[in-house]
Design brief:
The complex is a heterodimer of chains A (661) and B (178). Chain A contains 22 helices and ten strands. In chain A, strands 2, 3, 4, 5, 6 and 7 form a six-stranded antiparallel β-sheet that branches. Among the domains of chain A are: 1-165, no CATH class; 425-517 and 620-661, no CATH class; 518-618. Chain A starts with a helix and ends with a helix. Chain A is an alpha+beta fold and 661 residues long. Chain B has a single domain (32-177), classed as Glutaredoxin (3-Layer(aba) Sandwich), CATH 3.40.30.10. Helices cover 42% and strands 18% of the residues of chain B. Chain B is built from five helices and seven strands; from the N terminus they run H-E-E-E-H-E-H-E-H-E-E-H. In chain B, helix 3 links the parallel strand 4 and strand 5 (120-124). Chain A binds chain B through residues 233, 235, 237, 240, 273, 277, 280-281, 284, 291, 295-299, 308, 311-312, 315, 318-319, 322-323, 326-327, 329-330, 333-334, 370, 372-374, 376-378, 380-384, 386-388, 521, 610, and chain B through 2-3, 6-7, 9-10, 13-14, 16-17, 19-26, 28-29, 32, 71, 73-75, 78-79, 82, 101, 113-114, 131, 134-138.
Chain lengths: 661, 178
């Protein structure tokens, strides 16, 4: 019964979404206020119905109702409770249900917190959201129904892919989807603005927090995904330029560009059509990512559900949404009033450079991801674009971006003074060069790219700190004034400083871990000691242990430095029963300075075991830096200007809206 | 000119969408059947830096051989490497390595570190030979018969089962057939 009610709720949600996607749009066009007013209750109803459907499916999983085909295929009664719940979205149908749940939740939030939006703009935004919802609901109901029944019901389920039975991967999709789907809000605002033919600073002030929120989630999602790859795949790598990774990285790049160009619209009323285009692109890339993962067009280790009819459906949807919005853009964008004028050397100019580089990187990643497909379709050749292509392009294009990143925030709006800015960045330049020289001396015969990475990281870190120091007049004014200025700086400014520091940390992490990783792959016998990165690792042996739904070979390593005991590490090699599959569970000892990473493999039959040991300096900075970036995003989100929304409103109304938010 | 600026995005998208549509009807895991039973491409490659025996079409004629495509940047290659080491040491069948799109220094260091199971190696620095072989992902392993024709292609890292159930029986069969 529960499953049928969930199915029924989805059908109702489709009907509501049809209403939400059409009537308010027509109402806003023809001036029917009653139809305009339908948008908010419809968004609420849609959210409640989908939430009910999602709860129904969750219930079926938790209660192990194997008469539901999806539960049978992806769950097992012996599975730990956590993975029964996360199993809901650990499969194709359930993950789509999560997708639309988040879509509806975002629509609901716009409806609930959008009290100070002009009613017609709000109606149009919610309508566009409703139309996206229609597409996905049709997709679920016609090709991927999560509530399908089995008769007779099997006794037990087939189990969840063991790779997904992991806290990292359990929470990776929700964050990623919050990011992907969050970008739908920016998209809906962009389409609504194109329909209205009007983009103004208030519009940008509305779009920016939603984009920022989506960007934060997307950053967390990507960071969790790469962290998972790092500890679960067992090779110490954390990013493989796999199509599915690229699928999440492209919207991130576009969203990052959008965040920055929206600032220009907000402050200077310029770059309007460009910002609209970015908002469309960011969400289009999210949809493309969904298509690539779900359709199996590209060969990927991550693709876990592939079915050609689904592919055709998503492609048709993609063409409607992206093609439709880009056509609208082609027709309407030329009519948008051009905004403020600025010189190439200015804050706007540096943000344009940032945008251009980010978009080119996005394009290169897109090209690299789709090239095998083009080659197959047009040249009838099967080929692959390997990491070398991506690494080369990425390094080439990130270098100017990082150089500009330290200088941009110091530029004045409208007309900047490059000599003055460079003069102020002398300290950063010296710091970067010293760091580069130290790296070079320490490098022995490693790659020269390490020097570049360190120089860029140092330049960005010190340059960003200098910008902040300049704003608060650190050491140039009495300490009291510095504190007062620090207190008065807008949160958005702190957000930028923190996020840029995060980027610098990530650069350091990537550079150091790629350059100074030490690895040992060998067969070790109990009692044998091997030194990795200054740590003496003694292999104590390996023994079988039993987990709730797997059996495991657990190795033990005693780690000492100069005879002093540091820790004991327990890497595992697991064999799951349902479904049968082997996984590696690396043992990692993370510290701020370096990670120690151990993997135990198969026995050689003579008392020895294949082991892999790594020492990776600064690698945890990659994730720490990502979290610092997210922290910057949230600090910026807490800025009063963003919460208030529109500046011209009366104080009382504004604080009311702030309290609501 | 001005309108082109605004229509460019949709034009680009049309191209991408068309390719995606064609892509849907293709299977990325499918082996181009055209290559099976066809002679291996004509090539003559120098060995990986620091090694003596290179790899050429002539080396693949006269006996049944395996050609393993590998690269130092390929993570999955490491997982099959111990198996290749065993196979190379056992001498059951000659294993030749095609080093695909790799820097000479990296390839040499990689073989020094993880071991060299290959009787011969070919350094395909530009990836031309790999393309002629129809390589689209690394690692891949080809079974070549005595006449120098591609008998089978294995995509992805080789596992013990693949070797025991598919590759080695095929090698045996090809030998018996002459």
């Amino acid at each position: 019964m529960i499953a049928e009610s969930g199915h029924f709720a989805l059908i109702l949600a489709l009907l509501v979404a049809l209403v939400q996607g059409t009537l308010p749009l027509i109402g806003a066009w023809r001036g029917y206020d009653m139809w305009v007013a339908l948008a908010r209750p419809a968004a609420t109803a849609q959210f409640l119905l989908i939430a009910f459907a999602f709860a129904s499916l969750t219930y079926a999983f938790v209660a192990s109702d194997f008469s539901v085909a999806n539960v049978f295929a992806n769950s097992h009664s012996a599975k730990p409770m956590l993975y029964k719940v996360t199993g809901v979205w650990g499969n194709h149908e359930g993950s789509l249900l999560l997708w639309i749940l988040i879509l509806a939740a975002f629509g609901f939030m716009v409806s609930a917190f959008g009290g100070n939006l002009p009613a017609r703009l709000r109606a149009r935004v919610l309508s566009v959201q409703g139309l996206i919802g229609v597409g996905f609901l049709l997709f679920i109901l016609f090709t991927s129904n999560p509530f399908e029944r089995l008769d007779p019901a099997p006794l037990d389920g087939r189990g969840l892919n063991p790779l997904l039975q992991d806290p990292g991967l359990a929470f990776h999709p929700p964050f990623l989807y919050l990011g992907y789907v969050g970008l739908s809000i920016a998209f809906s605002f962009a389409v609504a603005a194109l329909i209205e033919g009007r983009v103004d600073p208030a519009w940008a002030r509305w779009v920016r927090p939603w984009t920022l929120l989506a960007w934060c989630f997307l950053t967390v999602g990507i960071a969790i995904g790469s962290w998972w790859a790092y500890y679960e795949l067992g090779w110490g790598g954390w990013w493989f330029w796999d199509p599915v990774e690229n699928a999440s990285f492209m919207p991130w790049l576009a969203a990052t560009a959008l965040l920055h160009s929206a600032v220009v619209v907000e402050k200077r009323d310029a770059l309007k059509s460009w910002t609209i285009l970015l908002a469309i692109l960011a969400f289009s890339l999210s949809l493309l990512g969904t298509f690539l993962v779900r359709s199996g067009v590209l060969n990927s280790v991550h693709a876990f559900a592939t079915d050609p009819t689904r592919g055709v459906f998503i492609l048709a949807f993609l063409v409607l949404v992206v093609g439709g919005s880009l056509t609208l853009f082609a027709v309407r964008a030329p009519a948008l009033a051009p905004g403020g004028f600025f010189r190439p050397i200015s804050r706007e100019g540096s943000l344009v450079l940032n945008n251009a580089l980010l978009v080119v990187i996005t394009g290169a990643v897109l090209l690299g991801t789709l090239y095998p497909l083009f080659a197959d379709a047009l040249l009838n050749r099967k080929l692959t674009v390997g990491a070398p292509f991506f690494n080369l392009i990425f390094t080439l294009l990130m270098t100017p971006l990082l150089i500009a990143m330290a200088a941009g925030p110091l530029m004045a709006w409208k007309r900047g003074d490059l000599t003055g800015v460079l003069n102020r960045l002398k300290i950063a330049l010296v710091a970067a060069l010293v760091l580069g020289a130290l790296t070079w001396m320490w490098l022995a015969d490693g790659p020269m790219l390490a020097v570049l990475g360190m120089v860029l990281g140092g330049w960005l870190l010190v340059g960003t700190l200098q910008e902040w120091a300049g704003r608060v007049k650190l050491f140039r004014a009495p300490i009291g004034e510095t504190l007062r200025r620090a207190g008065n700086l807008p949160r958005a400014a702190y957000g930028m400083t923190i996020a840029h520091i995060g980027v610098a940390l990530v650069i350091f992490g990537i550079t150091a871990s790629e350059t100074w990783t030490e690895e040992r792959l060998m067969v070790m016998k109990p009692g044998q000691v091997v030194t990795v990165g200054g740590y003496d690792m003694e292999f104590l042996g390996a023994e079988p242990i039993q987990g709730p739904n797997y059996s495991s070979l657990q190795g033990r390593f005693r780690v000492t430095v100069a005879g002093e005991h540091i820790t004991t590490m327990f890497p595992e090699s697991r064999v799951y029963q349902n479904p049968p599959m082997e996984t590696t569970e690396a043992a990692i000892r993370p510290t701020a300075a370096s990670d120690l990473y151990a993997v135990v493999g198969e026995s050689d039959g003579e008392g020895g075991y294949g082991v892999r040991l790594y020492h990776k300096p600064l690698i945890s900075w990659i994730w720490i830096g990502s979290l610092v970036m997210v922290l910057g995003g949230f600090v910026s989100l807490s800025d009063r200007r963003l919460r208030v929304g529109i500046p011209s409103r009366s104080k009382a109304a504004a604080s009311g809206a702030a309290a609501q938010a | 000119m001005r309108s082109l600026k605004y229509t460019l995005p949709i034009l680009l998208f049309v191209v991408i969408a068309a390719a995606l549509y064609v892509g849907l009807s293709l299977n990325p895991k499918e082996i181009p059947s055209a290559l099976i039973d066809k002679p291996v491409p004509e090539f003559d490659l120098p060995p990986v830096q620091g090694r003596e025996l290179g790899l050429a079409t002539a080396n693949l004629k006269g006996e049944v051989t395996l050609v393993n495509v590998f690269a130092s940047w390929c993570v999955a290659c490491r997982s099959e490497h111990p198996l290749l080491m065993d196979l190379g040491a056992s001498g059951e069948v000659p294993v030749y390595g095609l080093n695909y799109k790799d820097k000479p220094d990296n390839a040499e260091a990689w073989l020094a570190e993880w071991g060299d199971p290959y009787g011969r190696t070919g350094a395909d620095v530009k990836g031309r030979v790999g393309i002629d072989f129809g390589v689209y992902g690394v690692p891949e392993t080809f079974v070549i018969d005595r006449q120098g024709r591609i008998a089978y292609k294995h995509i992805g890292p080789i596992r013990r089962e693949d070797l025991d159930n598919k590759i080695l029986p095929l090698v045996k069969k090809l030998r018996e057939e002459g």
